[in-house]
Amino acid sequence: MANDTQNVVIGKRQILRELKGGNLAEIRIASDAETVYITQLIEAAKSGNVAYRICSTMHQIAADYGIEVPCGAVGVLKA
């Protein structure tokens, strides 16, 4: 799935900031992230009317986006 990190923001803080700015097309959340983390991002996505999906693991998301450490979520920026 190798994706370009220029098209995504990494982690909850950046996702929430871009969500407030209306810049996200989708949020991808790792299935093995902490339950509270997942819940917070799902609620934020719903309130911001942005699509989200639960996918793979933190390690797989990191590998897919060229991130050096496990990552709980990425926000895909609008084109």
Strand and helix layout:
Layout: E1 8-10, H1 12-20, E2 24-30, H2 35-47, E3 51-55, H3 58-65, E4 73-77
Parallel strand pairs: 2-3
Antiparallel strand pairs: 1-4, 2-4
Helix pairs in contact: 1-2
Protein architecture, described:
The chain has 79 residues and is an alpha+beta fold. It has 3 helices and 4 strands; from the N terminus they run βαβαβαβ. It has helices spanning 12-20, 35-47, 58-65; strands at 8-10, 24-30, 51-55, 73-77. The chain is globular and about 25 Å long. The mean pLDDT is 93.
Give the strand line-up of the largest sheet.
1-4-2-3
Radius of gyration: 11 Å
- What's the assembly state of these chains? single chain
The helix-and-strand class reads: alpha+beta
Number of H- or I-type helical stretches: 3
Number of domains: 1
The residue ranges in which pLDDT falls below 50 over 5 or more consecutive positions are: none
**Second-tier CATH architecture:** 2-Layer Sandwich
Mean pLDDT reading: 93
Descriptive key words:
single chain; 38% helix; 79 residues; four-stranded mixed beta sheet; alpha+beta; 60s Ribosomal Protein L30, Chain: A
Short description:
By secondary structure, this protein is an alpha+beta fold. The protein is globular, with a radius of gyration of 11 Å. The longest helix has 13 residues, at 35-47.
